[in-house]
Specification:
By secondary structure, the chain is of the alpha/beta class. It has one domain: 2,3-Dihydroxybiphenyl 1,2-Dioxygenase, domain 1 (Roll). It is 16% helix and 30% strand. Helix 1 packs antiparallel against helix 2. This is Glyoxalase/fosfomycin resistance/dioxygenase domain-containing protein.
């Protein structure tokens, strides 16, 4: 059986927890399904949740860390630098308006808006420094994965 993506976990230091959660909730209109002092869950798409978790350096609050397939009792990893984290990519209706939302919610533009033949692309950094791509499809793109 192949793997199915169900959660994207964003570990952030305590001062960046609220700004990062607000950034994804307001910029991309992601429904907030859980909010505690240390964890927020946002529905990204059907079956996929973005979990923002607030942790001190070296701390691990994700319960799957100690479960089978976790680290088996090893010390939790330190925060990776933002450049080592995967970039999230969102399909958007309008790059320009979403970019303005991102900037007003604590995002920072990471390079110029690009205009390749298949659409517009912009990359921002969220308040924790993670890179987030936005793609506005232009024209009819043929699915080559099938």
């Amino acid at each position: 059986m192949s793997g199915i993506l169900t959660r994207i976990i964003l570990r952030v230091p305590p001062p960046l927890y609220a700004p990062t959660t607000t950034f994804y909730h307001k910029t991309f209109s992601l429904p907030l399904t859980l909010a505690t002092e240390t964890t927020a869950s946002l529905t990204a798409s059907e079956g996929v949740t973005i979990v923002v978790t607030c942790e001190e350096e070296g701390e691990q609050t994700d319960p799957s860390f100690a479960s089978p397939g976790g680290t088996g009792g090893l010390d939790p990893p330190a925060f990776p630098p933002p450049s080592d984290r995967p970039m999230l990519q969102f399909d958007v209706e309008c790059v320009q308006s979403t970019l303005l939302q991102a900037l007003s919610n604590g995002g920072e533009l990471d390079g110029p808006i690009k205009h390749p033949a298949h659409g517009k692309v912009a990359v921002v950094k969220d308040p924790s420094g993670g890179r987030v791509g936005m793609w506005e499809k232009i024209g009819d793109i043929r699915d080559v994965t099938g």
